[in-house]
Specification:
By secondary structure, the protein is α+β, with helices and mostly antiparallel strands. It is built from four helices and 16 strands. Strands 1, 2, 3, 5, 8, 9, 14 and 15 form an eight-stranded antiparallel sheet that branches. Strands 4, 6, 7, 10, 11, 12, 13 and 16 form an eight-stranded mixed sheet that branches. The longest helix is centred in the N-terminal third of the chain and has 24 residues.
Length: 287
């Protein structure tokens, strides 16, 4: 027969388990990685950078939840002996080193990835519909190799709910990066891809996208509406309908987290359903 103290201990443990379980269900997933993996989080305003989630006042019976969409990425350094290492974006790369970018999303959408080199040349590396959870290797064949003059390489990763004109082909089957630049006297928009036809996220009146260099300059100039994670990757929500500029509403609700070499950025899914684009800029320092 069990003693009274033993019975009390069992009862107290059972009560503790029930209470902590109820709290976990009420709060929901915390941090960008947890929200990225589950695809949902508390329907509250988030604070970025720390990955913390502050629940709003909710009824105990039915805590509110919201659907979230996000991008995860990591950088893979390829060694000459065949080994590879996951490295932070803050690393300074040396000439001759090789690199791959691994990207995945937690919801279906249209993923566009571009490289803006130190020379200013732009290459569309990927522009396809993304399957949730599928790892996308960039470049698909081969790898990046740092060469030439030291500087900063930029990777622009964009996730949208409809095809992104930034990665669409222009006339003649050339990509925007391959299209010859227009002469100064010509209409600069002639070298840009046209927006998708009406009916796709109500984009009939969206102006043509700016060149990627102008886009990244807009990100750099929008410190009050652009966030950075611990690896100094810039995140924002771009509004094509508002001249392709970052918007304050996006900053308010982006949740960021970096752990184990993988970086996560999530935002309420409704933010990219009306034509907006979750955008992140990765800067790679080369010496």
């Amino acid at each position: 027969m069990k003693s009274l103290p033993s019975i009390l201990i069992v009862v107290l443990v059972a009560i503790l388990v029930v209470c902590t379980g109820g709290q976990a269900q009420t709060k929901g997933p915390a941090g960008a990685k947890a929200i990225f993996d589950s695809g949902e989080g508390p329907a509250v305003r988030m604070s970025s950078g720390s990955g913390s989630v502050k629940p709003a006042t909710q009824t105990a019976a039915a805590p509110a939840k919201e659907k979230y969409v996000g991008i995860s990425y990591k950088l893979v350094l390829l060694r000459d002996d065949g080994r590879f290492d996951i490295v932070p974006r803050s690393r300074t790369f040396r000439s001759g080193e090789r690199l791959k970018l691994l990207v995945r999303t937690n919801k279906p959408g249209y993923l566009t990835i571009m490289n803006i080199g130190t020379s200013g040349n732009t290459t569309v590396l990927y522009s396809e519909q993304a399957e949730p959870g599928a790892m996308v290797e960039i470049p698909k064949a081969g790898n990046f190799r740092f060469s030439g003059a030291p500087g900063t390489e930029k990777l622009l990763v964009m996730l949208s709910g409809s095809p992104n004109p930034m990665g669409a082909p222009v006339q003649g089957g050339q990509t925007m990066a391959q299209a010859p630049s227009a002469p100064p006297a010509a209409d600069a928009s002639a070298a840009l891809p046209p927006p998708p036809p009406p009916g796709q996220a109500d984009v009939a009146n969206i102006p043509p996208p700016p060149p990627p260099g102008v886009m990244t300059a807009s990100l750099a100039g929008g410190k009050d509406i652009t966030l950075e994670d611990s690896n100094r990757t810039s995140y924002s929500v771009i509004s094509p309908k508002n001249g392709w500029k970052p918007e304050p509403r996006g900053k308010k609700d982006i949740v960021l987290e970096s752990r184990g070499g993988e970086n996560f950025g999530v935002v309420p899914a409704s933010y990219i359903e009306d034509g907006k684009i979750l955008t992140l800029e990765i800067k790679l320092n080369h010496r």
